[in-house]
Each structure stands twice: as structure tokens, then as C-alpha cells.
Write a sequence for this structure.
């Protein structure tokens, strides 16, 4: 039988997490290979070129593009201040001179004798990136960033919003199917990352933002409420840039979804510990899933939990990821080789699935995902 | 690569954004035929991040089904002789990794910029943005946009040869100031293709040579009256291989495995559509609805056009179809009542788990409803792009003054359209072929008489690339194994009162009458072709005037002949939910679209 590579999310207590921290442009790396660093440490910095302002110099002076250069009072490469005179026309016998002030603070970049346009550039913006998680620098990417490694508890979600945040995990849901209530969110939770149960609503998200909660991890979210919270519809599955004051990591999917027991148990164990989470999701190629990372001391020795990469077999534990029975967890008890006809009349590769109570159904093989044991 | 006449076993794959499909073709009894097909999830994503894993999995399935050994570990066995294990050639197309994403720039948005967009689209690219000197943005806004989009490459055009150079140089200056970086890999320069006024090449070079990888090709609009897109398209293909593919996970390995360069999937499909139009001298519309994008190809008035709707698709982009079409437009095709909250969650769950398939009838109907809207929107976008050249001076006569079509009107004409070719998972894999036929009719609303076909198992991309190395094999497999002839659609234009007699179709002593508001299926076997008289009602039009009868060739197929008297210009559905559901149910029953529950 051909291997069935069924994409599964990584949910593991013991993983070696590698993180690449890279600048958007080349810059300076501030740490060395072998350094032990903390999540908040700045590891690399650079200056993003400032925004450009283009000025129709020849037009403003009322001269042909080729001649405007001779009226310039500043040279290419010089720094200029706002309102500083950058060009001046000769006028008529010294009268009726027109002066062109700089619209910005910045530098004179270039003048084009073809178009008569002068390019000015605003001062560069400083960009810093931090380590995001505690760890050891294992590689320095020259002038660009680093790769760091750390033993950690690592949970991938299925969908999220909002970018990287760091804070203390706070277990709020007494069980994985619990639905958070607004009164559960209190002022003491400021700066924390909450562990919810099966559903996070628009009301909860708003309550979290108003109390200063920076992140929330839950099983499910209703799309309609997400739209209400964001104030717009998410079109393509690329998130992480939302600036709503909170990062959300959804572990199971849309709708009310009991958090997988394993995920819940691991999060529960880490109640009170500091975590780094990121809601950024990109489902297209180069896939990015949201994540929760709780690091151990870098010197903690352990063997990594095995991540299922080889595919599905009889006995594999899987979760159904499509209606009906969405979210149900059970065992693979049959992997018939031949295509089979299902309710839609489509002929597909199927598997026989056994629920925890022993009931069995036949479903398309692509409608399950592997769960690590 | 082996000589053409020695090639008897061909392996071809297409790496889609969701699924990797492999086909095996063999020459048997002196003709090339499809032997088996295998597929596996595409593995560009983490944790695999290596496209070849999915390719090898799909090939393994082919091996099992064909009972032929093709792989030796992770290597494809290439045969010395024409016997035994292995294959003679291996070829591949790809749209995984987000395909090719480009930004184009031109002086005037409706002229050189539009031509540049057509060149990029025709080469199989997604056009992320079109910058033009008259696009009403300020320079700093354009610069910011170029910087944030991070395209795979930029195509710059503008000016006719010998014309003014100022504007195109200005665009070069904007690109220079933006100092754009490519999407993949920080270590190399962004490719920029210049295909504008040749007299400006030197000045453009001065501005862009330092910070970008600049390539200069022939002007794509040498005069206002002429487009010359091929040199730019060829360069795009070369750079796609050199830069974009080489950066995507696992592609270096895949490039070593193939015997000819990997082609972008839509480019390969386009080759086929254009070939059909030219060969049969007909007007063709091709639609390929994928997971992330929907491509539309057309061949009207001997002009080939292709557009890609980057964010209309059935998995990754499924939520965007809902966003752009609106939930109400999706719901109008669902033949049962449904709670909005539930529908939204189901669609989102498909988005986040794109490889799942519908396992219940309801789920299938929802997906097919969404596909209608994705196709409809993609076709609208195509109509806007597939236009006559703008800016061309036309001598006008008195009769033209009464003709509303102006320079730049769309080439797509649903009345003169002869053939629709549907492709992509939702059309190729629909459990009943009549489902594909109705999805295409509902989305495209063909008028007059139109033949409908689908790509049987979604192998047009592989055959497209095969046609570049072995035309005979590609044509034979396309005719015999790929194209499924569904039948014909007869649709009069106009609207009359519901229930009134709308159209009569007569052939071979048979007479079929259909009332307005109804749709009817007349079985006609595959391969049968008859001359039919089609008589529309007094206020309806079959293309030559209201109430005028026409004689037309009607072709049968695996579905038959569909007489669609539900109205055109406009086609409408009832607003209130109960009557809408009743109507949809009636139509679906009339064509036996779904199994009885």
C-alpha cells in the first residue's frame, strides 16, 4: 500500500523546536552561535529604508528636465530638513525667484534628467527582532538573523489570528468542552494567555481585549463571530497581521469544538508557565500554523516524542476532520486497497474507522488526520 | 531524452496546490493511451516541505495500479530499451508553492499595462497588481505597494517603439526607489523583465541594472495596433524555472528528475485550449477550477486569452469565494434551507483542511454551489481582461455609430461560443457527469447551442506539457481518454412568462417542447451528431433574431442534450427561499442530478 501522508498537527510535550529569526532586510546580528538567549532578547537589528517622496522638480521650476539640476541647492546624498530650500530658480534679474522647499526630513536620493523627478527619502526606520522563545543559538545567518533551538512543549493549532506574543498561561476552562463566560475574564488576567475550552465567542474576545488579556487558546470559534470581532471577512487564509489587541490560537476548527484531550492535558500541565504564541496562519504552500510554545531549560535532556510522518496504518489513532462526525477520535481498523463508493456516489479511497464505543463507519481517507500517541 | 519515435511509456505529474496527480501513458496497438492515474496530497507544506515526496507517492500509486516498477528508491527508472521496468520520459507541471506571482507595470493602464498583464497571465502567472502612471496612486503609494507585495518577478512595459521615453523611465525610477525583494530567498536579486519602448532600454537599464536582475526583451506593444507578447512570455517561463521554482521546497530535486523544464500548470492547459480552437476553427472557453485559483482560457476571434483569478478556488481560497460572491449568492444554489452560521463554519473548515472531500450529499451540494459562484466570478474577471486592443484608432462608419461595441469591448461572446471545456477537481471528479454539465451551465450561462465537455480525470496540465515534446501522444490521449463529451446545451435568449411554450427542438422525427422556466434532458448517445431545427417562441432568440428558427448541429454525449429554457439576459432565481428551493429541486430532478435521499 502506498503511504498515506495525512497532514497532522504537531501536539507534543517534548519537542526540539527550531526557530529561524530573520530580518526582512540585511542588517546586524547581535548574538553569536552557542549563546543562550531569552525570549525577549533582541537578536538582530536593521534599518528599513525610509519611505520615498518624489517631487516634480523640473515642473515646479518651470524648466526642461535636463536643466533643472543646475538650480539645485543640494547634492545627491546630502541630508535635508523639512522646508530647507532644495532648489531655487534664477528669476528675472534676481527678482521673482521661486524656491522649492523640501517636503520632508531625509536625504536627497537622485534626480532624473529624463523625467525631471527628484527622489527624496525619509530617514530609515529601525527594525529589531527578538528571540521569541528562550533557547540556544545554533546558527547565525550572516547579516540576516539566527536559528535557535530549544527543548519545548509544542502545540500547533489549526487556525489563528494575531502575531507573536509572550505571557503566562492561565487555565480557565475546567474541561476541554467548557464554553468560556464573560465573567470568567477578570482584571488579574492582564498580560496573560488564557486556555479556553471548546468555543471562544466575539463577546469573550472583546472581554479579553478590555481586560488586557494578550492571547487565548481554544478548541473552536464561529466564523460569524470572528467576522464580527474583526469587523471584516477573512478572504484568503493568510493571517497574523491583525492588530486587534489579542492573539487567538484555535486548535480544532470552526464551530464549537471540544479541544482534543491531549492538547488540553498538555496545556493544563503548563498552567502558570510562560509561553510564546503566534496566531499567524498561512494555509497555502509554505504552510504556517498557529502555535503555542513553552520552553524547558536549554540543557534539559530528553528524547523527542516521535512525530508521525510515515503515514497511517491499522491501529493508528485519527481524528475525523469533516462533517459528519467532525472532531470524533478513533482508531483505523481497515484500509481497503480498492476505491469505494460513498454517499455522494464518488469513488474514493476509504478507511474503516472505529469510535471509542466500538461503533464502526467507513469514511474517505482524506477526511481524517493522524493524532500522535 | 530519447528520440520521439522511441518513446512508448510516458510518466507525467502535475503538482497542484492541494493534490499531486500522476498519469502513465503507453503506446499500445500503435496508439498512445492513458493506462492509469495516481494521486497523493502535495507535500510542499510542513512537515514535509519537499514536493518530491508527494510526487513519489503519486507515482507509487501508479506503480501499484499498473503493476509496473517505475521507482528505484527515490529515483525514476529510465529505460534504455522499450521493454521492462521504468519509463521513457518523465515530465511535470506545477502550480504548488502559490504558483508564479508577478507584478506588472505599464504606462497606460488600459494599453501597455493591460498588454503586460495579458502577457503575464498568458505565461501562467498570477498578477498581484498592475502599476500604471495613470492608476491614480501617488508615487510613494506605488513604491510601498511594490515593496510589500514581494512578487516573484516584475514585468515592465510602456511606450511604443520610437515614442516618448519619459513615462516608462519614470516607472523604472519607481521600481528603483522601491528596491523590491523577491518572495523566496534573500540572497538574490529580483528578476525584472523590460518589454517596452526599445529606445528607453538604455535609460531603464541605468536605473535597474544595479539592484535587480534586469532582462530586456522585445517591446510587447511595439505599435498601438499590435501586441507582441511571446518574447515576454518566453522570458517569464525561463525565469519561472530559474528563480521561482528553484526556491520552492524540493523543486531543485524535481527539476533534476524531469526530462524537460517544469511548466506552470495554467500555461500548459492554455497550450491545449489554444490548439483545440486553432485545429477545429471554433470558439472555445476553458475553465479550470483549482484549490487556490480558477483559470479561465478563451479562444474567440482567433485570439487566445487566459486569466487567473488568484483567490477564487475550492480549498485554500474557498472562503474568499464567499467573501467576493456574498453568502446569499452561494445560498441561491443550495437546494435546501440552511443556517448561515453552520454554512460559514463548514466552508471555513474546508479552508483550513483543504484536502478533505465531501462525504455526504449535503456537503457535495454545498461545494458544487460554491463552485458555481467561483466560476461565475472568474468568468466575469476574464471577460473584463479578454478584450480587443484599446487605444487602436478605428475608422467609424454610420453603421458603427449604431453599434454599441467600442474599441476594447470583450471578446467573450456566449452566443458564438462553440465549446466549453471544464477542468479541475470539482468538475472532473463530480460523481455524476450531469453535475459538471449543470455547474458549467449555471455559472457560464451559454447561449444558443454550445457543446459541453470535461477533462475526465483532470489531466490537461500533463497533456499540455506533453504536447511540447510529443504532440502525437498528447493529441491521441486528449481525444480518447481526456476529453469527456457531455453533450450539448440549447438555450434561447430572453424572458417570457413562466410556463409558456419557450422552445421546440426537432430532429430525426422527434419533437421536444420545453416551457419557459424549465430545463429538460434528452438522452443522445456519445458520438451521435444530428442536424436539428430549433424554434424559439416569438419573444425569444436563438441568435439570429426573436422568434427566428435555426438549424444547428447537436452533439450527444455521456449526459445528452440539455434544453435550458430558464431564461437568459437575465437568468434569475426566485428571491424567497421556499420557491427557490422548490425550483432548484425541480431542475435537479429533471436532469437527475443527485441520487434520491
Amino acid at each position: 500500500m502506498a503511504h498515506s501522508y495525512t497532514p497532522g498537527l504537531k501536539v507534543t510535550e517534548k519537542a526540539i523546536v527550531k526557530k529561524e529569526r530573520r530580518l526582512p532586510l540585511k542588517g546586524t546580528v547581535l548574538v553569536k552561535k552557542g549563546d543562550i538567549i531569552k525570549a525577549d532578547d533582541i537578536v538582530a537589528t536593521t534599518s528599513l529604508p525610509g519611505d520615498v517622496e518624489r517631487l516634480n522638480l523640473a515642473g515646479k521650476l518651470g524648466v526642461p528636465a535636463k536643466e533643472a539640476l543646475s538650480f539645485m541647492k543640494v547634492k545627491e546624498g546630502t541630508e535635508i530638513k523639512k522646508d530647507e530650500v532644495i532648489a531655487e530658480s534664477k528669476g528675472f534679474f534676481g527678482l521673482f525667484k521661486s524656491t522649492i522647499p523640501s517636503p520632508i526630513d531625509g536625504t536627497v536620493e537622485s534626480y532624473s534628467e529624463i523625467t525631471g523627478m527628484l527622489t527624496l527619502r525619509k530617514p530609515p526606520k529601525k527594525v529589531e527582532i527578538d528571540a521569541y522563545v528562550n533557547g540556544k543559538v545554533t546558527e547565525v545567518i550572516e547579516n540576516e538573523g539566527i536559528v535557535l533551538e530549544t527543548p519545548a512543549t509544542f502545540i500547533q493549532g489549526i487556525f489563528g489570528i494575531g502575531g507573536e506574543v509572550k505571557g503566562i498561561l492561565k487555565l480557565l476552562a475546567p474541561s476541554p468542552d467548557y464554553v468560556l463566560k464573560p465573567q470568567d475574564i477578570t482584571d488579574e488576567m492582564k498580560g496573560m494567555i488564557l486556555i479556553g475550552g471548546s468555543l471562544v465567542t466575539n463577546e469573550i474576545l472583546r472581554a479579553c481585549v478590555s481586560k488586557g488579556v494578550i492571547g487565548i487558546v481554544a478548541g473552536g470559534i464561529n466564523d460569524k463571530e470572528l467576522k464580527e470581532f474583526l469587523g471584516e471577512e477573512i478572504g484568503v487564509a493568510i493571517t497574523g497581521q491583525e492588530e486587534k489587541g489579542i492573539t487567538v490560537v484555535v486548535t480544532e476548527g470552526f464551530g464549537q469544538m471540544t479541544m482534543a484531550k491531549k492538547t488540553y492535558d498538555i496545556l493544563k500541565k503548563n498552567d502558570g508557565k510562560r509561553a510564546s504564541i503566534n496566531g499567524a496562519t498561512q494555509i497555502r504552500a509554505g504552510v504556517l500554523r498557529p502555535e503555542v510554545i513553552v520552553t524547558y531549560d536549554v540543557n534539559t535532556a530528553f528524547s523527542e516524542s516521535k512525530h508521525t510522518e510515515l503515514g497511517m496504518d491499522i491501529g493508528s489513532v485519527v481524528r475525523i476532520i469533516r462533517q459528519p462526525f467532525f472532531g470524533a477520535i478513533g482508531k483505523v481498523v481497515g484500509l481497503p486497497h480498492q476505491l469505494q463508493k460513498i454517499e455522494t456516489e464518488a469513488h474514493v479511497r476509504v478507511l474503516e474507522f472505529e469510535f471509542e464505543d466500538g461503533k464502526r463507519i467507513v469514511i474517505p481517507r482524506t477526511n481524517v488526520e493522524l493524532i500522535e500517541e | 531524452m530519447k528520440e520521439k519515435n522511441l518513446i512508448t511509456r510516458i510518466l507525467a505529474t502535475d503538482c497542484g496546490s492541494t493534490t499531486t496527480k500522476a498519469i502513465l501513458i503507453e503506446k499500445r496497438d500503435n496508439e498512445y493511451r492513458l493506462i492509469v492515474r495516481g494521486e497523493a496530497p502535495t507535500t510542499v507544506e510542513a512537515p514535509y516541505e519537499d514536493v518530491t515526496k508527494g510526487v513519489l507517492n503519486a507515482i507509487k500509486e501508479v506503480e501499484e495500479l499498473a503493476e509496473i516498477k517505475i521507482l528505484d528508491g527515490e529515483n525514476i527508472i529510465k529505460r534504455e530499451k522499450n521493454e521492462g521496468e521504468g519509463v521513457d520520459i518523465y515530465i511535470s507541471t506545477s502550480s504548488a508553492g502559490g504558483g508564479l506571482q508577478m507584478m506588472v507595470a505599464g504606462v497606460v493602464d488600459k494599453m501597455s499595462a493591460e498588454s503586460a498583464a495579458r502577457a503575464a497571465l498568458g505565461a501562467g502567472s498570477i498578477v498581484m497588481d498592475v502599476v500604471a502612471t495613470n492608476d491614480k496612486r501617488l508615487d510613494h503609494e506605488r513604491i510601498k505597494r511594490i515593496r510589500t507585495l514581494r512578487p516573484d518577478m516584475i514585468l515592465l512595459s510602456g511606450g511604443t517603439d520610437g515614442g516618448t521615453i519619459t513615462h516608462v523611465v519614470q516607472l523604472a525610477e519607481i521600481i528603483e526607489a522601491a528596491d523590491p525583494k523577491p518572495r523566496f530567498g534573500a540572497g538574490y536579486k529580483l528578476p525584472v523583465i523590460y518589454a517596452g519602448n526599445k529606445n528607453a532600454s538604455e535609460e531603464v537599464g541605468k536605473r535597474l541594472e544595479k539592484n535587480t536582475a534586469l532582462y530586456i526583451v522585445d517591446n510587447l506593444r511595439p505599435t498601438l495596433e499590435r501586441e507582441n507578447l511571446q518574447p515576454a512570455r518566453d522570458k517569464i517561463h525561463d525565469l519561472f524555472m530559474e528563480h521561482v521554482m528553484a526556491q520552492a521546497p524540493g523543486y531543485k530535486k524535481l527539476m533534476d528528475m524531469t526530462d524537460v523544464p517544469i511548466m506552470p500548470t495554467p500555461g500548459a492547459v492554455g497550450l491545449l485550449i489554444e490548439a483545440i480552437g486553432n485545429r477545429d476553427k471554433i470558439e472555445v472557453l476553458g475553465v479550470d477550477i483549482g484549490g487556490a485559483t480558477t483559470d479561465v482560457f478563451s479562444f474567440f476571434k482567433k485570439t487566445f486569452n487566459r486569466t487567473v483569478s488568484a483567490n477564487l478556488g475550492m480549498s485554500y481560497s474557498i472562503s474568499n469565494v464567499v467573501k467576493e460572491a456574498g453568502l446569499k449568492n452561494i445560498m441561491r444554489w443550495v437546494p435546501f434551507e440552511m443556517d448561515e452560521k453552520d454554512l460559514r463554519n463548514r466552508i471555513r473548515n474546508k479552508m483550513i483542511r483543504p484536502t478533505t472531500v465531501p462525504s455526504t450529499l449535503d456537503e457535495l451540494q454545498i461545494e458544487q454551489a460554491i463552485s458555481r459562484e467561483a466560476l461565475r466570478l472568474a468568468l466575469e474577471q476574464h471577460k473584463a481582461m479578454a478584450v480587443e486592443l484599446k487605444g487602436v484608432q478605428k475608422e467609424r462608419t454610420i453603421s458603427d455609430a449604431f453599434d454599441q461595441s467600442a474599441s476594447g469591448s470583450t471578446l467573450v461572446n456566449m452566443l458564438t461560443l462553440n465549446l466549453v471545456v471544464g477542468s479541475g477537481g470539482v468538475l472532473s471528479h463530480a460523481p455524476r457527469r450531469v453535475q459538471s454539465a449543470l455547474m458549467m451551465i449555471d455559472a457560464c450561462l451559454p447561449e444558443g447551442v454550445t457543446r459541453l465537455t470535461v477533462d475526465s480525470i483532470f489531466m490537461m496540465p500533463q497533456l499540455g506539457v506533453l504536447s511540447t515534446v510529443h504532440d502525437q501522444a498528447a493529441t491521441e490521449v486528449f481525444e480518447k481518454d481526456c476529453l469527456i463529451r457531455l453533450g450539448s446545451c440549447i438555450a434561447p435568449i430572453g424572458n417570457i412568462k413562466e410556463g409558456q411554450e419557450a422552445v421546440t427542438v426537432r430532429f430525426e422525427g422527434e419533437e421536444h417542447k420545453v416551457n419557459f422556466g424549465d430545463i429538460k434532458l434528452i438522452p443522445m448517445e456519445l458520438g451521435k451528431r444530428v442536424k436539428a431545427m430549433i424554434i424559439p417562441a416569438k419573444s425569444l432568440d436563438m441568435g439570429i433574431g426573436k422568434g427566428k428558427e435555426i438549424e444547428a448541429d447537436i452533439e450527444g454525449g455521456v449526459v445528452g442534450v440539455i434544453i435550458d429554457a430558464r431564461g437568459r439576459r437575465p437568468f434569475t432565481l426566485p428571491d424567497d427561499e421556499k420557491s427557490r428551493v422548490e425550483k432548484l429541486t425541480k431542475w435537479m430532478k429533471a436532469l437527475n442530478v443527485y441520487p434520491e435521499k
